[in-house]
């Protein structure tokens, strides 16, 4: 049995509202007159053809249908395979060479995404960990607040307030995105510290985020030269295991207001 076509969905919407094709014709005529554009008008014959074929309506006629059927324009676009939320995805995939202003487009503010709404009270903010281990309850948050963040299916790490391994490149209290497809050291050439790959590492007693090197079967966790932390050495695969490469970071550049008011009372304020 084949899936319902867009025309089938449109017919179902019309039936549910108790509207005839003649009613749609009359109402769309009023829209066309108000907008001063005959493209908004939907004839009885045209609507019948749309409901019984694979035709694709123009944006003007789809607008009229959205108004008459009391549905969101974006929902009707989705019926025909057009998801406006994908625009932001393509913008990210094809960056422009020059610096420019941009904005966060939210075409359907009612759509939701999964996001942590309660964190585990026993979680220790001082130590580096995975975000998924911190979450006690997941909830649905409107996409108008958050976009392109799927913490259920991607790894996100938290840099503990006592973890100064890569300070000042990565400040304590930062969140990092981890690509778990990269689980081995990459033989990449890098010229600056910003190009050098950073890895998220699982240890027997926790996690670490650092530059890494392999030396005689041991994994070396290397700190930033300005960091007070030292080099750590673990048996690779037994005492330490790379779980992914850091690909993005969310980091404060100044101390949080509450931390600033306390002076240097917290590690983040001191940083």
Summarize the structure.
The chain has two domains: 6-79, lambda repressor-like DNA-binding domains (434 Repressor (Amino-terminal Domain)); 118-270, Umud Fragment, subunit A (Ribbon). Helices cover 27% and strands 23% of the residues. The protein has helices spanning 6-17, 21-35, 44-51, 59-69, 73-79, 86-93, 131-134, 257-261, 267-270, and strands at 112-119, 129-130, 135-142, 155-158, 175-179, 199-203, 206-215, 218-222, 232-235, 240-250.
Question: Secondary structure elements and their pairing?
Answer:
Blueprint: H1 6-17, H2 21-35, H3 44-51, H4 59-69, H5 73-79, H6 86-93, E1 112-119, E2 129-130, H7 131-134, E3 135-142, E4 155-158, E5 175-179, E6 199-203, E7 206-215, E8 218-222, E9 232-235, E10 240-250, H8 257-261, H9 267-270
Antiparallel strand pairs: 1-3, 2-4, 4-5, 5-10, 6-7, 6-10, 7-8, 8-9
Structure description:
The protein has 271 residues and is α+β, with helices and mostly antiparallel strands. The chain folds into 2 domains: 6-79, 434 Repressor (Amino-terminal Domain); 118-270, Umud Fragment, subunit A (Ribbon), CATH 2.10.109. It has helices at 6-17, 21-35, 44-51, 59-69, 73-79, 86-93, 131-134, 257-261, 267-270, and strands at residues 112-119, 129-130, 135-142, 155-158, 175-179, 199-203, 206-215, 218-222, 232-235, 240-250. The strands form 2 sheets. It has an 8-stranded antiparallel sheet with strand order 2-4-5-10-6-7-8-9. A two-stranded antiparallel sheet has the order 1-3. Strand 6 (199-203) and strand 7 form a beta hairpin. Helix 2 packs across helix 3 and helix 2 packs across helix 4. It is elongated and about 80 Å long.
